[in-house]
Design a protein that fits this description.
It is a single chain. The protein is built from 14 helices and 2 strands, in the order H-H-H-H-H-H-H-E-E-H-H-H-H-H-H-H. By secondary structure, it is mostly helical. It has a two-stranded antiparallel sheet with strand order 1-2. Helix 2 runs antiparallel to helix 11. The longest helix is centred in the N-terminal third of the chain and has 41 residues. It is found in: Cell membrane.
């Protein structure tokens, strides 16, 4: 009788735990809905279709960076160089376009170069044994400095860029009424969703974040897998950079400054643990929408950009504290 009672108690605890996990997974979605409702009440123009499309276009850049950052944070790492990669690789592509290289080829080369820069981060961390925070902080400084050297501190713009249909289309075009950057973000989301949640690589990523030593013992090639994860982060940052230079019609040497914080915020708000091993890329998409809605809403309400930084910082602190409570 006692044994049966104990078994029922264990089953009940397991069920309760699953329910709590499901509810916690809905947290970011509920937060987005509440934020959207509050913004709409304070300024009904938030729901204007043009504003919503503009919101999604703005979210696309942070979303792409945050998707790559999700893989990194799932391993318990961090990548502070994403903003600098976003500045350097589009500057390279812009210079190539100005020199007469076909736009699509120039952008593809820039994205590949971004993957190589991400891979450099991975090698410094895996082969050099450097902590991800220190390694990416150092490369962030190097990449940012290289961008200023490469551009001589001046924006890169030219008639070749402005006259290129592909260049303009990527950042400012529409496809069936949907902004092209949004389509690029959604395609990237589905590809990375499959990679993370439906393929072996994703299981290896979670294993690294859960227990790296156990993952190594189980036969996972930790260094190779982790390096590829940073390659993904670099590629996504470069792709976001291509959209940005298309929107601005120029490559700005200071582009991407502070973008790493918005990306990290989106990942954390989406429910991914900074300790690694727990989180979903769908949550990151919701987190990016929360950050975008917050920015858009504060602009509509007329809140100063100085105060916006304070508000976003408070939101990040709340998300981190909630993450700590979940682990406790």
């Amino acid at each position: 009788m006692t044994s049966t009672s104990n078994e029922q108690k264990v089953v009940k605890e397991v069920k309760d735990k699953k329910i709590l996990q499901q509810l916690s997974g809905l947290g970011p979605v509920l937060a987005l809905i509440v934020l959207a409702l509050i913004t709409t009440v304070m300024n009904p123009s938030f729901l204007d279709p043009n504003n919503l499309l503009n919101l999604l276009r703005q979210v696309s850049i942070n979303g792409l960076i945050a998707f790559g950052m999700t893989f990194v944070i799932l391993t318990g790492g961090i990548d502070l160089s994403v903003g600098a990669i976003l500045a350097l690789t589009p500057a390279l592509s812009a210079m190539m376009i100005t020199s007469g290289v076909p736009t699509l080829i120039a952008m593809l080369i820039g994205i590949i170069f971004g993957g190589l820069l991400g891979g450099l981060n991975g090698l410094i961390i895996t082969k050099g044994g450097a902590a991800p925070f220190i390694a990416s902080l150092a490369t962030m400084t190097i990449f940012r400095g290289a961008t200023y050297v490469f551009t001589n501190g001046n924006p890169i713009t030219s008639k070749a860029m402005n006259n290129s249909f592909i260049f303009q289309f990527i950042g400012r075009g529409y496809f069936f009424g949907i902004p092209v950057p949004v389509i690029i973000m959604l395609i990237s989301f589905f590809i990375l969703y499959i990679l993370l949640h439906k393929m072996t690589f994703g299981r290896k990523t979670y294993a690294l974040g859960g227990n790296e030593k156990a993952a190594f013992v189980s036969g996972i090639k930790v260094k190779i897998t982790k390096t590829w994860i940073y390659v993904i982060s670099g590629i996504m940052s470069s792709a976001a950079g291509m959209i940005l230079i298309s929107r601005l019609s120029s490559a700005q040497p200071d582009a991407g400054t502070g973008f790493e914080m918005d990306a990290i915020a989106a990942v954390v708000l989406g429910g991914t643990s900074l300790a690694g091993g727990r989180g979903r890329i769908f949550g990151t998409l919701i987190g990016a929408l929360i950050i975008g809605t917050l920015n858009n809403g504060m602009n509509l309400i007329g809140i100063s950009s100085f105060y916006q930084q304070i508000v976003k910082g408070i939101v990040i602190i709340i998300a981190v504290l909630l993450d700590r409570r979940k682990k406790a």
